[in-house]
Amino acid sequence: MRTLIVGIGALGGTIATRAVGAGVPVWLATRTAESARLLQSSGLRVSGIGGAAVASRFHVAALEEYREAEKFDLIVLATKAHDALEIAPFLSTLLTPGGTLLSIQNGGVSQILSDRLGSGVVLGGLSNLGATMVEAGIYEQRNAGHLLIGELAGGLSERAANVARTLSRAIETRVTANLRGAVWAKLLLNCSVTTLGAIAARTMRQYIASSAGKEVFRRTYDEALSVALASGTRPERMIVDPIPPGWQGTSVPGEDYDAWIDQIAAAYGDVKPSMLQDFERRRRTEIDFINGYVAQLGRQIGVPTVMNAAVTGIAHRIEKGQIQPDPARLDDLLRGAEHQGDHPDTC
Length: 347
Ligand SMILES: NC(=O)c1ccc[n+]([C@@H]2O[C@H](COP(=O)([O-])OP(=O)(O)OC[C@H]3O[C@@H](n4cnc5c(N)ncnc54)[C@H](OP(=O)(O)O)[C@@H]3O)[C@@H](O)[C@H]2O)c1
Known about the structure:
17% strand; 2 domains; four-stranded mixed beta sheet; eight-stranded mixed beta sheet; 46% helix
């Protein structure tokens, strides 16, 4: 399977290094020719969980240079969300007939791409594998996670199995018949654990200790779960059941709910939110595809998403440098939501 990996950053670089090392026929695409030259001279190195891998001879070029190249059976799209949406139409022209574009971004990206390019082209994916880029060409795998791939329309397919077989030579890749449910399970946590931690500049365990933090978590999560269920998705269980105990269209505060929150905190509560790193480095976040996606979908299908819309607005203001990440942002959110009420048209 002739494969192009687009975006040789933390995740794409880790996959690419392991793929080249394992002899998978891969070509690498960077944004610029300068980045390609840099990688060509530095080589690729991965350390960390999963063992070391090194690659010194590989094909790498700026994406644009693949315009005239032989077509690809598989393109692994490993850029951030905004770039993924921008370049996906061009990428679809680089595919062989029946070829597959695999999207591994968080949040709503794979569904948006599938709606735009067709479910026959786009295969959905998500990464439970965590990786960082130390510098161009040097990557660190941070956990023993895997790629999870599948058809966005649901069910199993031969092409998903073939893609998994190819990529598994480089990185553990599993197939699910409920990819949408898996994407949403992660999205529910990204909306609440990650984003709220980022805007509060705290881990979940820290911000959930305040009553404002707990309430904002509850409302943000409840809205996102309501949107998932109303859109016909059954979120998959990851480490914790995605549906809070006693769920009745909203969560029911009480001992069982607190025990469920404790389970989430035990699994994810001490991780520094990746979006906080984006804020600190003044990088554009993927908020529009996380809480912003929930708010937009909620508007479309008539599910109130006041809190997710407000969280998105606050994240944008932090990106612009108008306000700073701080626990006080959670109080702002609570005050704002109380003023707005639960009217979908205020999202
Ligand atoms: N890293 C993780 O552990 C992890 C885990 C789960 C999910 N994800 C998801 O995976 C995606 C990628 O994350 P990441 O952490 O790997 O991001 P990253 O380190 O920022 O890497 C993205 C790479 O894409 C490149 N790129 C951007 N536009 C391009 C274009 N037009 N053509 C070719 N390359 C282009 C960027 O190059 P420039 O530097 O030149 O812009 C950069 O090298 C995100 O959606 C993220 O949410 C990541």
